[in-house]
Design a protein that fits this description.
It holds the Pfam family Fer4_20. InterPro entries: DPD_II, FAD/NAD-bd_sf, FAD/NAD-binding_dom, GltD-like, Helical_ferredxn. The chain contains 19 helices and 16 strands. The protein is of the alpha/beta class. The chain folds into 3 domains: 128 residues, Alpha-helical ferredoxin (Fumarate Reductase Iron-sulfur Protein, Chain B, domain 2); 168 residues, FAD/NAD(P)-binding domain; 149 residues, FAD/NAD(P)-binding domain (3-Layer(bba) Sandwich). Strand 8, helix 16 and strand 9 form a beta-alpha-beta unit.
């Protein structure tokens, strides 16, 4: 009788891929986690309890068939594991790297709740897909039949690219419009290489292009082409622009030189370090932390990216101001731990009151305490009067989150309805907007969210678009 490959969680402990030492990894922008070896991946996948109600799957936005591909991995059936994994996820190798598994699948693992340590789902997912690329199991996009219908997608981030993949596989002609010179959105220019090395993203971009997706890059809708022209050129349009408008930072002196936006800082670093682009603002030091006292304001994953990027750029000191405590911060606890190992100092329960100097030389900091819960159930921060102090700073990075741009105004478009938060109003599931044949997906609908949710929205929307054009084709054929 064959040996049982699963249910090993009682005898086999959780073992994550080896993490490079803090001193070593803080000197470069390479990913910090090593790959699993084949036997280790099988062993860790075999810890899955194969429970009847898989909470890992139900808490995954894509509802990935996690227990199935874990079992197939444990049995050594890796090609089948990849087929199951990619059936529900357009970019499993990316999700395996950057999803906050501690808040989603792994955080809801049944054996974690029983005290045995969660299955390392993200690491196995990454291993499966990297093996698939190495072995040639990732097939080029080859539609069984080409169709004449076309879809325009505005935005080459994860939501737009996921929709492009589904539509192209169905034979639809797809054109993706994006304001940047490379596709990928925040995966390319927002997320640092130590979390997501750029060849991983470029590999998928190349697969889409080779499969027939047309990319119109350096194309800013509203300036280089009108929204009306895009609608005229296609049978349907998907808005997948994401949200790039940074939240402002009030207080005296907030307009001083040396106070910069997180997106500008991260984009400059990714361009210069990961792509070798000529970035004058990076070379001049305007968007470079080298030899500076850096203060990052915010507590989300973007703030963590700025903190850890500053360390790698050779900052003199790196501190994070966050108005709540560690337990109430929105960012991944894993990222906080990584940042602390690399030398970042967290100043919990602090917020900026103002800024000194121009160029900036310091942040006036006020201490906070947590008061009564607000409408969301989180305790509201309250100022402790008379607790102000000054934190030296040569570079202040605003990482307070993102808001949507005013698309109806930018695109001179009537009828594109938005919510009171400025996000595009779209139908749940399909992404349909008030404009006929126009859909919206990802952060421009949800507000700033996770890559995995954008992928889910893009896939669902593509299915809705296919239903629309199939219906139109059936009517035309009658």
């Amino acid at each position: 009788m064959a040996k049982q490959p699963m249910l090993k969680f009682v005898n086999v402990g959780r073992d994550t891929p080896e993490k490079r030492g803090a001193d070593d990894r803080a000197r470069d922008f390479h990913e910090i986690y090593a790959e699993y070896a084949d036997q280790k991946a099988k062993e860790q996948a075999g810890r899955c309890s194969q429970c009847g109600v898989p909470y890992c799957q139900s808490h995954c936005p894509l509802h990935n068939n996690i227990p199935d591909w874990l079992r197939l991995t444990a049995e050594g059936r890796l090609e089948e594991a990849y087929e199951v994994s990619q059936a529900t996820n357009t970019f499993p190798e990316i999700c395996g790297r950057i999803c906050p598994q501690d808040r989603l699948c792994e955080g809801n693992c049944v054996i974690e709740q029983s005290g045995h340590g969660t299955v390392t789902i993200g690491a196995v997912e990454k291993y499966i897909t990297e093996t698939a690329f190495e072995e040639g199991w990732v097939k080029p996009i080859k539609p069984a039949q080409e169709r004449e219908e076309s879809v325009g997608i505005i935005g080459a981030g994860p939501g737009g690219l996921a929709a492009a993949d589904i539509l192209r596989r169905a034979g639809v002609q797809v054109t993706v419009y994006d304001r940047y010179d490379r596709a990928g959105g925040l995966m390319t220019y927002g997320i640092p290489g130590f979390k997501l090395e750029k060849p991983v993203v470029m590999r998928r971009n190349e697969q889409l292009e080779a499969g027939g997706v047309t990319f119109r890059l350096n194309c800013d809708v509203g300036r280089d082409i009108t929204f009306a022209e895009i609608r005229e050129a296609h049978d349907a349009v998907i808005i997948a622009t994401g949200v790039y408008k940074s939240r402002d930072l009030p207080g005296p002196g907030s307009g001083a030189q040396g106070i910069v936006r997180a997106i500008d800082f991260l984009t400059a670093s990714n361009r210069a370090v990961n792509f070798g682009d000529d970035v004058p603002e990076y070379e001049s030091g305007e968007l470079n932390a080298k030899d500076k006292n850096v203060v990052v304001i915010g507590g989300g994953d973007t703030a963590m990216d700025c903190l850890r990027t500053s360390i790698r750029q050779g900052a003199k000191s790196v501190k994070c101001l966050y108005r709540r405590d560690r337990q109430n911060m929105p960012g991944s606890q894993r990222e906080v731990a990584n940042a602390e190992e690399e030398g970042v100092q967290f100043e919990w329960l602090t917020a900026p009151k103002g800024f000194k100097g121009d160029p900036v030389s310091g942040v006036v900091v006020q201490k906070m305490r947590l008061g009564q819960p607000d409408a969301t159930g989180r305790q509201s921060p309250e100022i402790i009067e008379g607790s102000d102090y000054e934190e030296p700073a040569d570079l202040v990075i605003k990482a307070l989150g993102f808001e949507p741009e005013d698309l109806p105004k930018l695109w001179d478009t009537e009828g594109l309805e938005v919510t009171r938060w400025g996000t595009v109003k779209a139908e749940f599931g399909s992404g349909a907007t008030a404009l006929p044949g126009v859909y919206a997906v990802g952060d421009i609908v949800r507000g700033a969210s996770l890559v995995v949710w954008a992928i889910r929205d893009g896939r669902d929307c593509a299915d809705a678009v296919l239903e629309q054009i199939n219906g139109a084709a059936a009517v035309a054929a009658e």
